[in-house]
Amino acid sequence: MRAAFREALPAWFDGARRPMPWREPGPDGRRDPYRVWVSEVMLQQTRVETATPYFRRFTERFPTVRDLAEAGQDEVLKLWEGLGYYSRARNLHRAAQQVVADHDGEVPSDEEAFRALPGAGPYTAAAVLSLAFDTPLAVLDGNVIRVLTRVFAIDADARSGRTRRQLQDLADVLLDPAHPGRWNESVMELGATVCTPRSPACPRCPLNDVCQAYARGAPEAFPVVSKRAPVPHHTIAVGLVIDDASRVLIQRRPEDAMLGGLWEFPGGKVEDGETPGEACVRELREELAVEVEVSAPIARVEHAYSHFRITMHAFRCRLVSGEPASETGEPIAWVPIDALDDYAFPRANRRVIEALIEEARAPRLL
Ligand code: SF4
To answer: Which parts of the sequence bind Mg(2+) (predicted)?
Structure first.
């Protein structure tokens, strides 16, 4: 079994490895730990095809840890806009500042020092340190879990902590200590391209001789996962308060909140017994101490986050009284419609902006 994982699999990888910008070695023939780190953070919860253009733009603007550390958070979030899970960007930014302050701008190769950086969990540490420094740490991500549970026909719940620990132990034992980076990438690549969740390409898999799930003719029966609870749904109302100079009122989300540091249109959850329009008026009163009049809806957006779904109703609003001021002290700004693109917004808000711009461009009938 070990031979299959340490010989057949990496040999297959050498011929099948997909070119990716973060896989290219630098002038010294080694991979740049900073680029590996950025890619690993971006690739969490994100497909390679989606992450690649973001990676190129991000590393063109911030080619080194120091460039990232010196940037403002708004610019970092703007370059991350659309990738989701924005705490990854905020943590990476703070971690870069810590690397400059404590490690003279060199990404630490020591596991304890790396794990002390914001957002550096066991997965990121194992991936970055093994790929950049060949530190013998086995990665356990969704691809690795799928490959291991299939090869060993592990039918315990793969979401449970106990099974995760067993799988990590298994990966640690199988890891090739002489080439840990190559080994990790081989397993992840196999999971991403051959041992896929549906219709795995078993006949051309380098592990098919030893794979128990394949021998049973049931690869898709693994991994076994417990059912998740139904995803909650929230109805949200937001107001687009537009002044006579065609500027829109936006506010920044608190740092410690979900989507923290991004900008958004003011609003909130629709309560029981309220219409979305009524909720919009109430939320703006509570959040910004203003009275608004709601007119026609501009957009209705459906959006799914990892743990809940929303339906967002966006209304054009007229300021009736009051001077907007955030109740929580977060920054607010009046921004011309055509300058909204300079700010980082969550995806649902971005779709509202698209609808607003389309409306502004549409010929007036009256
Ligand atoms: S033989 Fe099939 S199920 Fe087994 S590891 Fe390979 S692709 Fe996955």
So the answer is: 267, 287
